[in-house]
Design brief:
By secondary structure, this protein is α/β, with parallel strands linked by helices. The chain is built from eleven helices and seven strands. The protein has one domain: Rossmann fold (3-Layer(aba) Sandwich), CATH 3.40.50.300.
């Protein structure tokens, strides 16, 4: 079971869009995939057609040890795609975990239990847009990290900060954590700034960048309102084909073929 977190403390970079659509593409490619929504906004949950206010158990219950992870998992209508949903209850988890011993490892323990009893090929974690205890839990439990980054100047500063957090988590909590890749989102080759940011990224992170870049297309913004990943909302759109390509790159990087 390969566990990969999608994280960036900066909001609006396409993190949830990337987590949802990579998970759906992995499922469509024959990989049984669990998408864990660790964002209190619950955007990943609603993006796969699950009403976040109607769920009985959520990632909050798993993180706070109120239930086993298997109880919080819902099978979606999409091929090989399952969701551990989230809702606003998760916002209280930061405070509740603050006083607990070994609070950084609660999710890791839950996923180790899940690994023994299930046959998921991939677990994709959509982290909140912060570097708090919930994100640390995700990174401490993961094998890999995907960093979605928008092609704009301030994104480079955020990436530098996230890389420091990555190194800290690797040293203190999880030596097996590696960077699966840096994913360029909302890319427009016609913008001079996009080209400049990409040039800077290639200077320092060339070997970590995904070959595929995600274009700024309207259908990617529309799909969540219909509760569908882009692959099912608009199968042969540019966004769908690009996320399928990224999913294939993930498989290659993680599995070696």
């Amino acid at each position: 079971m390969h566990i990969i977190s999608f994280a960036n403390q900066k909001g609006g970079v396409g993190k949830t869009t990337s987590a949802v659509n990579c998970a759906a593409s992995l499922g469509a490619l024959g990989k049984k995939t669990l998408l864990i929504d660790l964002d209190p906004q619950g955007s990943s949950t609603s993006s796969v057609g699950v009403a976040k206010n109607s769920v009985k158990f959520s990632s909050y219950d798993v993180l706070t040890l109120n239930c086993k992870p298997s109880k919080a998992i819902i099978e979606t209508e999409f091929k090989n795609l399952y969701i551990m949903p989230s809702n606003m209850a998760l916002a209280a988890a930061e405070l509740e975990l603050a006083t607990q011993e070994k609070r950084e490892y609660f999710l890791k323990g839950a996923l180790e239990e899940l690994e023994k009893s299930s046959d998921f090929d991939y677990v994709i974690i959509d982290c909140p847009p912060s570097l708090g205890i919930i994100t640390i839990n995700a990174l401490a439990a993961s094998h890999g990290l995907v960093v979605p980054i928008q092609c704009e100047y301030f994104a480079l500063e955020g990436l530098s900060q996230l890389m420091m957090t990555f190194k800290s988590v690797r040293q203190r909590y999880n030596p097996r954590l590696n960077i699966t890749g840096i994913l360029i989102t909302m890319y427009n080759a016609r913008y001079k700034l996009s080209a400049q940011v990409l040039e800077e990224l290639n200077k320092y992170y060339s070997y970590q960048l995904f070959d595929t870049k995600i274009s700024r297309v309207i259908s990617l913004s529309e799909a969540p309102s219909f509760g569908e990943p882009i692959r099912y909302y608009s199968r042969y759109s540019k966004g769908s084909l690009e996320y399928e390509s990224v999913a294939k790159e993930i498989i290659t990087r993680v599995e070696g073929y």
